[in-house]
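Appendix B, example 12.
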Amino acid sequence: MSIARPLVALSGLAAALIAFTPAAQAATATAWGPYYAPGHAAKAAGTLTASGEDHADIPAAGVVKVGGTVQDNTRSKGTCGWAVFRVTYRDSSNNLPFMHHSFRDCSYGSPKRFSFSHHDVYQVELKVCAQPKSATKPSNTCLYAGTWKVLYLSK
C-alpha cells in the first residue's frame, strides 16, 4: 500500500506531461513571401509546414506541405505568372535528387491557389517568373537565371 500512492502520483504526473508534449511538437505553418518576378510581373506568397524532422545521416522532414497563391500582375493577355518550386528530397539510397512543382496564373488580378506536399524533404526553394501564355512549362531562363529563394532547409 505504501508504494501504491507514489506510483499513482507519478502516473498522474506522467499523464500530465504527455498531455503537454504534442502541443510543443506540433508543426506550425510558416509564412513565406510575397516574392516577385522581375519587374513585379508576378507575385507568389503562402505558407509552409514541415513535420517529422529526421536528423539521421542526411536531415530531412517527414512531410512538407506548401500552399499559397500565384498572381499574374501584367495586364497583358499573353503573359502568365509562374511559381516554380524546387524540392530536394532524400531518396532510398540517401541521395538528394530534386523535382519541380510548377503553378501558373494567366488572369490579371485574380490569384490562383495551389498546394502540394512531399515526403523526406531536405530543401524547398522558390522562383517566381512571368512568361508567355503559350509556355506549357517554365522556361530554362526561369529555371536557371537568377537565384532561388530558400523557403525551407532541414537542419
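The beta strands are 30-36, 42-54, 60-72, 79-89, 98-105, 112-132, 149-153. The mean pLDDT is 86.
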